[in-house]
Design goal:
alpha/beta; 42% helix; globular
Length: 260
């Protein structure tokens, strides 16, 4: 999720506009296609897992807790942990969990790239985090340590050699990424080398998702909430088509793996 939705309002924003923004987000969700489309793929793929088998869940790199909160509702009898190293996001997610009165989700300051203790999780999710970590091989090895035998790992991450349709975004790079992304086959081989069996592999952000994301991102760069508010519902509908077709290529990859 973009941090711009959590920043203090500028002087040009009136109380009425701030109020309308809150109502809009409550009704339609955060108007950021990248977050919403990742969320749609995440929910679709995670529904393959029997809720009774996921008793202890780790959101590895939980950010502000959006996926942790969904997991706590979808797996109400499970214990959900979120690990995060950004202290602002950690504080935000803890405060939000308290306001939502969620009893089965807790957030901790832990680094998935360094914490090597063996655990017994049934499910680990890692969404758009692996590309930020220099030692991704060590992190995947840690995931294998954290999981029980038969436990599931869900990873979503960008792919390399991403195709851009809009000229203004062809040279755009994410400044916080340690790498552009991963080659799908190499990532899956890395998982296999660490004792995982691939259950499903999906190219995400195909043609429809890419177009919707690029247009959305272009508007975000211009910081115009009014234009974004008008365009977002149409871009969201466009992005849904991404899930209706099997993408031959995509900006991202979603992998569900099971520990042997």
């Amino acid at each position: 999720m973009s941090d711009r939705y959590k920043k203090s309002p500028t002087g040009s924003e009136t109380p009425i506009l701030k109020f309308l923004q809150k109502i809009y987000i409550k009704l339609l969700g955060v108007p950021e296609i990248g977050f919403q489309l990742r969320n749609l793929y995440f929910k679709k793929i995670l529904k393959k897992i029997n809720a009774n088998t996921a008793r202890k869940i780790l959101d590895a790199g939980s950010g502000i807790g959006a996926y942790s909160f969904w997991l706590s509702n979808h797996f109400p009898s499970s214990r959900v942990e979120g690990w995060e190293i950004d202290k602002f996001k950690l504080s935000f997610s803890r405060e939000l969990a308290k306001k939502m009165k969620l009893q089965n989700v807790k957030f901790f300051y832990k680094d998935i790239a360094k914490y090597k203790k063996i655990n017994n999780y049934d499910l680990i999710i890692n969404i758009d985090v692996l590309e930020h970590i220099k030692d991704y091989r060590g992190t995947i090895k840690n995931f294998s340590r954290y999981l029980k035998k038969g436990g599931y790992l869900y990873i979503h991450t960008p792919q390399v050699n991403q195709k851009r349709y809009l000229k203004s975004l062809k040279s755009w790079k994410h400044e916080d990424h340690a790498r552009e992304g991963f080659e799908p086959q190499k990532l899956m081989q890395e998982l296999k080398d660490n004792g995982f069996k691939i259950i499903s592999f999906t190219n995400t952000f195909g043609f429809f998702g890419s177009i919707a994301w690029e247009l959305n991102h272009l508007i975000l760069l211009k910081r115009s909430f009014i234009i974004l508010g008008l365009a977002y519902p149409f871009l969201y509908v466009l992005s849904i088509f991404d899930l209706l077709f099997k993408n031959r290529k995509g900006l991202g990859i979603a992998v569900l793996a099971k520990k042997n």
